[in-house]
Amino acid sequence: MIDKSYIYAVSMMIGTSIGAGIFSLPYVASKSGFFLFLVLIIILGFIMLVLSLMYAEVTLRTKNNGRLVGYCGKYLGKNGKKIATLVTLFALYANILAYIIIGGKFLNALFSKYFGGSEFLYSIVMVIFISAGIYISLRLVSIIELLMVSFLAITIFGIIFKGMNFVNFENLLTFDISQSFIPFGAILFSVGTLSAIPELEHIMKKNQKKIKSAIISGSIITVIVYILFVAVILGITGHNTSDEALLGLSSSIGNGIVTLGLVFGIFAIATSFLIIGINLKEVFWYDYNLSEKKSWALTCFIPLIIFVLGLRDFITVVSIAGSVTGGFAGILIIASFYKAKKMGDLKPAFEIKVPIMMSVVMILVLLLGIAYQFIYGF
Predict the structure, then answer these.
(1) Is 16 within 8 Å of 225 (Cβ atoms)?
(2) Which domain holds residue 103?
């Protein structure tokens, strides 16, 4: 008998991960070279898998439902909660900014030939419409969100299968060791599934022992999809790979499937933008007791101001979000994991054993990514 909750859990893991970040990967891989990218995504994919399992155990050990901020407050004290709050806010704003940038690129690619305009203008248009939805707290039916992610996944697989016939394998053999760390932030941003972990406890309430398997399956499938997508895009466009991946493909595989990718990419970005925006507004509204209008203004205008002031490079934003927020969130999860083993309220459905030395190595890798971003990425 098919376990629908397990399938939905795996699908949510994949859907949470595959989003705007996938479009950044071919470009960063073109800088380092495919095989250096391959090594890095396997390493970071494994680290994120372990972090996801550690985070799942923390949620299962804790009586009250919560998110990273709440767990850090319980297990790491006030300072841990403050750091987690800053990391969470930074991550949400960085995600919104990334959606503004790539949304403008995709809208411009679709409509500028008919109506004119620039990427900047179309980004502003996207902000206006999504901000209106955030203001009225427009809730999407979950099936709509699932359909958008599903159609985007189908389009990505369409690009992979159609594009295979146009791959020049010589494009996959080049590498630049001096740029081997460039993909770090974009990969960490793209493989991030941590926001989905607390939801798994509810989805698989009747069979929580399978949460571990769902996390492993979802993480492995996601990394495989990324590797195939990058191999095909990079194999076709090589050093001419565009920073959003799709636009450079038209001359090789035709406009049809690229246009389809842009359309569903826009819908997927818009739905994610709306969901994150509403969640952020409610953080200010409910957790910080600000008025609804002030909460909405802080949610929408801060990333818009940053965008207008000039931070409009999609790769830079994704890399910062991945390296800095992903790095600090990972370190907080590791610290909470060991504390929860001693201070947790409940016996979890499953436990994992992570040697201290392995955690130290993961922390060092994450700190290395943060340091690289601060030194070279700003």
Answers:
(1) no
(2) 4-376
